[in-house]
Amino acid sequence: MEDPAKEIRGVVLQITTASSPDQQKKAIEAYMTPDVGFRHPICAVESAPESRKTVLGIYQWYRILSPYTVLRVDNVVWDKENNTVLLDIVQWFKLFFLPIQAAPARLLTRLTLRKEGDLYFIATQEDFYHPEDFFALLLPPLTPLIQLFLLITGFISSLYAKFSHFLGYWRPSDMDSEKLSPDGPEDDLYTNTGRR
User: Fold this and answer.
1) What is the CATH number of domain 4-138?
2) What is the three-state SS of 5-30?
3) Which of these, 68, 72, 70, lies nearest to 95 by C-alpha position?
4) What tens digit of pLDDT does each residue of 17-61 get?
5) Under a CB-based contact definition with an 8 Å cutoff, are residues 95 and 117 in contact?
6) Which tens digit of pLDDT belongs to each residue from 98-154?
7) In the chain, is it the N or the C terminus that has fewer CB atoms within a 10 Å radius of its CB?
8) pTM of the model
9) How far is CA 43 from CA 7, 101, 112, 146, in A?
10) Between β-strands 119-129 and 43-45, what pairing exists: parallel, antiparallel or unpaired?
11) Where are the domains of the chain?
C-alpha cells in the first residue's frame, strides 16, 4: 500500500470477502509480509518465516465456514508515526451449516505495518471482540444470553464493591471529586485513604 489510510478498506475487503480463493491468495501475498503475525480470540500465528502461508490457511477456512461473509469498515485510524492502523469493523459471518441468519458482530482490528521501500505491508494483525459480538459470529441466538450474563456480572461487581466499602476496602473519601485533580500530586495515593 502506498497510502494505508486510503487503501486499507479495499485491502481488508479483498482479504476477507474475496469472490474467489485465487483473489484472496493474491491479496494476502500482496499486502501481508511473509512473516506476518496473527492474533484472534480462537487462533494465533506467531511471526515466523513463511507464517503467511498459515494465515492464508486461516482465511481460507474462514471463507469455507462462511462463504457469504459481509464486512463493513466503519472507521479507519492511521497512526503513521507508529505504523499502526486501527479499524472499526462490522461483519456478518454465518457458519454454513447453521439454519440461522447472520448477525452483525463488531470488532476492532489493529494492524501493525512495515514499510519496505515506498510501500506498507501488514506485519501483524490483531482482532478484538466483545464477548457478545464474538458469540454473534458463532451462535447468534446465544447473544442475548451473553449480554444478560454481562449485565448481571456488572451489577454483581457493583454490589461487591459496595459491600467492600462497607468493610472499609477501597472506599472513596467524602471529599468533593471536583477539587481533586486527575493530574495532581500523588501524596494521598499510598496513604490509608483507600485501604482498611
Assistant:
1) 3.10.450.50
2) HHHHHHHHHHHHCCCCHHHHHHHHHH
3) 68
4) 999 999 999 999 999 999 999 999 999 999 999 999 999 999 999
5) no
6) 898 898 999 999 999 999 999 999 999 999 999 999 888 888 888 999 999 999 999
7) C
8) 0.82
9) 26, 24, 18, 21
10) unpaired
11) 4-138, 147-194
C-alpha cell at 90: 462490522
Retrieve residue 174's grid coordinates: 467524602
- Judged by DSSP in three states, 81 sits in helix
Cell of 143: 447473544
Residues 6+ apart with CB under 8 A from 87: 8, 12, 73, 75, 76, 77, 108, 109, 110, 111
CA neighbor of 67 nearest in space, from 88, 30, 98, 105: 98
Name which of 38, 32, 90 is nearest 61 in CA terms: 38
Q: Show the cell assigned to 81.
A: 508515526
